């Protein structure tokens, strides 16, 4: 896999590696995020890149085509090179629902991220935990396993 590429896996038809060039071929968005980290205070960064939802849509998630709201059962987990990962819900990033403009940044504060890998920018998050740097992998799945793990206690 090329340095800086992201592996897309899970419940999508087009699993595989997305290069930085692929990310740059999609419409580019410009977002500014500012968040508070308990250890280092207020942080502010500007990112450009495609919307996360458009990258995922291009990979054709396994939504039931006959049921428009089936997509609301899907979860997206974003993993950084250091092992940090966090989840967004499909409804959160879908423009027909909450429409949070989460971006897979290929530049940060004007500098190309290149082989460091893209950076997730989640406007509106108050803390930094989902502003994930050095992304290596994104997985998407339905909530099926939440409902098949046996009875509630
Ligand atoms: N890959 C990765 N990204 C991460 C983290 C991490 O541990 N690993 N920590 C998050 C947290 S908790 C914060 S506050 C911000 C810090 O961003 P900064 O480097 O701009 O201060 O990075 C976020 N992104
Ligand atoms: Mo943080």
From TrEMBL:
<protein>
    <submittedName>
        <fullName>Molybdopterin-binding oxidoreductase</fullName>
    </submittedName>
</protein>
<dbReference type="InterPro" id="IPR036374">
    <property type="entry name" value="OxRdtase_Mopterin-bd_sf"/>
</dbReference>
